[in-house]
Design brief:
mainly beta; Alpha-Beta Plaits; 4 helices; globular
């Protein structure tokens, strides 16, 4: 069965935690899935080094509900040869997570600007994987404990008409080569390790009638790598 592009993927789960960056010690979730989380979820279903996922829209299907969790941690890392007595180093943290979430991600496959090829073969592979319910890794909603179910969206999936300010939200994480960088990754094409740094691209977000948009607009902004390459 052939599916029309751009794709509309429904994801849902019991809990989700999309941590706001200003609440690292005791995380509080954004009220809706950010584009970076949607991209990571799609890559868990299907990923190839020749393309990027482009997130066009994120729609909210269920009202925002928060639940509070308490977790036990230890204040120090476990190291070889060093014993850790948990009761002496235990610290409790609180998390404000989302409960009973469901979203529709509108997305498309975008070939990387330095490559040319047949995008249709990647679309067919993705469609077959969606039809079979297969994935590369188990998709999750923010953290690995909160697993996600996914399927094709249907016309019966209706938006939850919510309006709220979300503040600054991550749009895209860019990996920039830098010999003085603190992280390294494997280049998609050469498969050689590259040293560099991660740069987060932000935007001012709000929920308008159940859809995540940029403030004063009705759509999500284009990530800068698509703007410089002429868009999609």
């Amino acid at each position: 069965m052939s599916h029309k592009r751009p794709y509309r993927i429904k994801v849902e789960g019991k809990y989700a935690l999309f941590s706001r960056p200003e609440t690292q010690a005791e995380p509080i979730s954004y009220p809706i899935m950010p584009p970076t989380a949607a991209e990571g979820l799609l890559e868990a279903i299907f990923w190839k080094p020749e393309f990027d996922w482009h997130i066009l829209a994120i729609d909210m299907l269920e009202p925002v509900q928060y639940a509070n969790f308490t977790r036990n941690h230890i204040k120090d890392r476990q190291r070889p040869g060093k014993s850790v007595i948990a009761k002496d180093m235990r610290v409790q943290t609180h998390q404000a997570v989302l409960k009973d979430v469901a979203y529709v991600i509108e997305c498309d496959i975008q070939l990387r600007s330095e490559l040319t090829g047949n995008i249709g073969k990647y679309c067919e592979q993705f469609e077959r994987r969606m039809d079979s319910g297969g994935c590369f890794q188990q998709p999750f909603l923010g953290i690995r404990e909160f697993m996600a179910d996914f399927s094709w969206a249907t016309d019966e999936d209706s938006l939850c008409l919510d309006y709220r300010d979300c503040g600054r939200m991550p749009l895209k994480i860019h990996y920039v080569p830098d010999p003085d960088g603190r992280i390294q990754w494997r280049d998609r094409i050469t498969r050689e390790y590259v040293r560099g740094r991660a740069e987060t691209e932000w935007f001012d977000a709000e929920i308008k009638a159940g859809r995540l948009v940029e403030k004063a607009r009705d759509t999500l902004p284009l990530p800068r790598h698509l703007v410089t390459s002429g868009g999609i």
